[in-house]
Specification:
Blueprint (H helix, E strand, L loop, with lengths): L2 H11 L7 H8 L3 H13 L4 E4 L3 E4 L8 H6 L3 H4 L2 E10 L2 H6 L14 E9 L17 E10 L9 H13 L8 E3 L3 E4 L2 E12 L5 E10 L4 H9 L17 H22 L2 H10 L6 E6 L2 E10 L5 E5 L2 E5 L3 E4 L4
Parallel strand pairs: 3-4
Antiparallel strand pairs: 1-2, 4-5, 5-9, 6-7, 7-8, 8-9, 10-11, 10-14, 11-12, 12-13
Helix pairs in contact: 1-3, 2-3, 7-9, 7-10
């Protein structure tokens, strides 16, 4: 099955109205059987499509297909001046991987202060924390990566994911309810469930420029099947639709994220984590709660006490205060 035909059928159904198989076949210049196979391929990817005999096909939830030109046009002029290349693909293994080993212009040519962005409707090997797979059907999430070049590695770069988390909250203002929280070090939570995640990958040379790729995934409208896949992987998901955002224009959301992240990167380069610390503390999903920090040599249990100036998680337990720069953190049940 041609990925191009699958994408074209997805785009045709995106408005959420009923489209007959006969009409779709006529428009696409293929047989009705080819349309039926394309619809089946979309359903296999987790897209919820209603099929009614003698009527046709309808997407369960209308979506706005991702469009690089629309994302770029929604950026303010001063950010468009920094944009070197922006693209949207129908399907990729991973947007982060594509920017780290790019088919785009070589990373070495990305000048400090410039950025590339890449989004995909579907990722076959999207990555989350601790090598977990990121599941999202076409149209059901925003899968976006941004490549940036620092002239030199900023001081305190280990805390960059926390700053980007604050940038994501700022971008979501007006789209998601105000109780979206940040779970150290790189997750967006709402109602105790995962709304999104951040994955940052860095390539730097001693004393030279630093190339960073920031991947962010936001659940928009996952559907039951994909939500089940995510739960099976060990996470409890929630999406913007469940939170009341009935129609999420992912191009506008992508532009808002790019705007806030680029501005945040410039601020982080100047001042580190400090300008983001208060916003992080206000949205901290762990502070005051009993947590378990899983480490290679065991686990540490205690009360989360926020983050320090370097972005380390502070946990008080057994009469001591420990600081963690890495580790898998979970909230203790019934604690």
């Amino acid at each position: 099955m041609s990925a191009t035909l699958v994408q074209r059928v997805f785009n045709a159904l995106a408005d959420g109205t009923v489209h007959s198989g006969e009409r779709l076949a006529e428009i696409q210049g293929v047989t009705r059987a080819a349309i039926w196979k394309a619809v089946g391929a979309l359903q296999e990817l987790g897209v919820e499509i209603e099929a009614t005999t003698h009527r046709g096909y309808r997407l369960a939830n209308a979506v706005t297909p991702l469009d690089a030109a629309r994302i770029g046009a929604a950026l303010p002029p001063e950010l468009r001046a920094r944009l070197r290349h922006g693209d949207v693909d129908w399907s990729l293994a991973s947007t982060n991987s594509a920017l780290l080993a790019p088919r785009m212009p070589a990373a070495a040519h990305l000048q400090p202060g410039q950025f590339d962005f890449l989004a995909a409707e579907y990722q076959s090997a999207g990555r989350g924390r601790s090598t977990r797979q990121w599941f999202a059907p076409p149209g059901g999430a925003l899968c976006l990566s941004l490549a940036w070049s620092f002239a030199a590695l900023p001081k305190g770069a280990a805390a960059l994911s926390l700053a980007v988390g604050v940038c994501a909250l700022r971008a979501l203002a007006g789209i998601a309810p105000p109780d979206v929280r940040l779970k150290w070090p790189n997750d967006l939570f709402a109602l105790e469930r995962k709304l999104g995640g951040i994955l940052i990958e860095l390539r730097a040379e001693s004393g030279g420029p630093a190339y960073v790729v920031i991947g962010i995934g936001i659940n928009c409208a996952l559907g039951e099947r994909v939500s089940g896949q995510v739960r099976d992987s060990g996470a409890d998901p929630i999406d913007l639709a469940t939170l009341g955002a009935k129609q999420c224009d992912r191009n506008q959301l992508a532009a808002a994220l790019i705007r806030e992240i680029v501005q945040g990167l410039l601020e982080f380069e100047r001042s580190g984590l400090a300008p983001f610390a208060a916003d992080w503390a206000a949205a901290d999903a762990l502070v005051g709660r009993v947590v378990t920090v899983a480490l290679p040599d065991g686990e540490f249990i205690g009360h989360a006490r926020g983050i320090d100036a370097d972005g380390a998680l502070c946990v008080h337990g057994n009469g001591t205060l420990r600081r963690f720069h890495t580790g898998e953190v979970s909230v203790r049940a019934n604690a």
